[in-house]
């Protein structure tokens, strides 16, 4: 069998880029700021509208400031489109984002359908974000929040939480060798 080396390289790059995009979602939702920081080039920018536009440290500072008000944070990736050119790439990443924010009188659900417009480059043999820009295609707000865990399919299940209080924390930590 003849192996098409160029096609194989594109497939590997696409897989690594998809891993980067998914790692972003987990880092934001679990408030893992060190992991998030490591996904970007040091001089990268992230444009999230009026929430934050600028460098990665500014974006992380805004996430940290918002953390006490975030009851639910879930970023979901759907369609991914990558244009890979050697050690650089561009991406249009479709996403569905679900948030519940604490409000003065009641919680508020914000559901966003949008896309990330990204540029990527290899950094120390790893793909990283060079620029990330959010495009909001639609958004819904429910006030008060409509979250309800009373149905038998959700009643009694573990409850997801934003940040480090989520039941998944530790799931990807390697087990310690016996003693």
UniProtKB/TrEMBL annotation:
Region of interest (Disordered), residue spans: 149-179
Pfam families: SnoaL_4
CDD domains the record matches: NTF2_like
Origin: domain of life: Bacteria
Residues annotated as domain SnoaL-like: 10-133
InterPro entries: NTF2-like_dom_sf, SnoaL-like
Protein name according to UniProt: DUF4440 domain-containing protein
Lineage per the UniProt record: Bacteria, Bacillati, Actinomycetota, Actinomycetes, Mycobacteriales
